[in-house]
Amino acid sequence: MKTLTIFAITFLFLHSACTAQNKLLDKAKKTVKESILNPASAVPSNEEIISGLKEALSNGAKSSSDVASKLDGFNKNPMIFIPFPSDAQKMKKKLIDLGMQGKVTEFETSMNRAAEEAAKDAAPIFINAVKNMNVSDGMKILKGSDTAATQFLRENTYASLIETFKPTVKAAIEKVGVTKYWTPLANTYNKIPLVEKQNPDLDAYVTQLAAQGLFKLIRDEEAKIRKDPAMRMSELLKKVFGYADSQKK
After folding, report:
1. Which residues contact 222 (CB under 8 A, 6 or more apart)?
2. Which of 82, 141, 151, 177 has its C-alpha lying 20 to 30 A from 71's C-alpha?
3. Could you tell me the pTM of the whole model?
4. What is the DSSP string of 156-187?
């Protein structure tokens, strides 16, 4: 009887061990099968995550620059339209009251034309900033909001981008003749008694709003890549953002 009991216990132990081992094997087989059938679910390396984020932002920068540089890319897009300088709104209202709405519109259009012209050369500036970006916390960005990478790029490169972008915008302002539309408006307004003279730095104003507009477009491009698998045009993007999708389920 004692021998039988020991045999039974040994049998149960071996059976349990085999069952546990089989479960582990089944789980491993399932994981391998899922990785083969769905490579995007595989865990990307930190290098792949960084490369994927850079690729997504580079694609977003190029696409955004292409959209913004088209005729009316800024001028007819409410999200990035560059309005009359905010610190000169009293001037704008007074000029419209004087019957100069047409001239005001021409001036605003000229600023947006300058931004559209500058956007033609913006992509390399943004892409260079992306390439030099060191995403030490890549996993955090990947698992963050739909615009986390763009926000990280903006926070870490905005000041240097503005400096780099400034001469591009300045050249565009001169090319489309922004000051030609501004000068008669300013002269008319500044002749009105008791008003505060207006002479804003149009180069800085257009540069800042043009860069901000491009960041808004890049932000939307990043969101599209995160939300729509069809927007992930390379195997790297499919793997990196596919993994991000799996972590949110």
Report:
1. 56, 57, 60, 146, 147, 149, 150
2. 151
3. 0.80
4. HHHHHHHHHHHHHHHHHHHHHTHHHHHHHHHH
Phi and psi angles of residue 241, each rounded to the nearest 5 degrees, phi first? -80, -20
pLDDT > 70: percent of the chain: 83
Q: Which tokens hold the place of 112?
A: 């947006």
| Residue indicated by tokens 């997504």 | 56
Q: What is the dihedral of CA 182, 185, 187, 189, to 10 degrees?
A: -140
Would the pLDDT of 31 be above 50? Answer: no
In which region does residue 248 sit, left (phi positive, over 0), alpha (psi from -120 to 50) or beta (all else)? alpha
Better-predicted residue by pLDDT, 34 or 129 = 129
CA nearest to 213, candidates 94, 96, 64: 64
**Ranges 90-104, 152-166, 219-233: which has the least confidence:** 152-166
Per cent of the chain over pLDDT 90 is 61
DSSP 144: S
**3-class secondary-structure state, position 80:** coil
Burial environment of residue 182 by CB neighbours within 10 A (0 to 12, 13 to 18, 19 or more): buried
Dihedral of CA atoms 125, 128, 130, 131 in degrees, nearest 10, equals: 170
Contact by Cβ (8 Å): 240, 41: no
- Measured distance CA(245)–CA(119) in Å, rounded: 32
